[in-house]
Amino acid sequence: xxxxxxxxxxxxxxxxxxxxxxxxxxxxxxxxxxxxxxxxxxxxxxxxxxxxxxxxxxxxxxxxxxxxxxxxxxxxxxxxxxxxxxxxxxxxxxxxxxxxxxxxxxxxxxxxxxxxxxxxxxxxxxxxxxxxxxxxxxxxxxxxxxxxxxxxxxxxxxxxxxxxxxxxxxxxxxxxxxxxxxxxxxxxxxxxxxxxxxxxxxxxxxxxxxxxx
Length: 213
What we know:
Elements: H1 11-54, H2 59-69, E1 74-82, H3 83-86, E2 94-97, E3 99-100, E4 108-109, E5 113-128, E6 134-139, E7 143-152, E8 166-171, E9 185-191, E10 198-211
Antiparallel strand pairs: 1-3, 1-10, 2-9, 4-9, 5-8, 5-10, 6-7, 6-9
């Protein structure tokens, strides 16, 4: 004998399949979307923070890691001045703050530090109307012309294109170290001429500085 199967017996199962199961999966999808959105937001904030902290070139984050790994807090930075980006250096001791390579903002030395080594590389020859512009490199306020003394940019004075990296005043000894910064300071290029601004020029400045205890 065949057993009679009544459709009514399957109504609860059918209702569960048609109503409860879709609701459950909709809930799961909604929760997944919320979790994904939250994670995306946190990652976005983290990346933005890293961008702000890191900057470019060595970056603040790398410098902090390097400081922790070195007992003497020695930090190396590659800076740049580029006429095509930064513009001319104004007359009468006008200054332009150097940037860390890859950054659009001025590099800032921390308070209570000394530059112990400096090296310069000219990648585009500096020029002015008669090549009489008087340029120097230094630390704003504390040692304005202390990285490279003021000289005219005429041929043969160290402001012409060269593939070589040339040592500055700081050579790694205590005697040649810069003045100690008394606050956060920019590293600057300065023009001491009364009437001639530069019309071209690009350089890299490699500095090593030590934060004092």
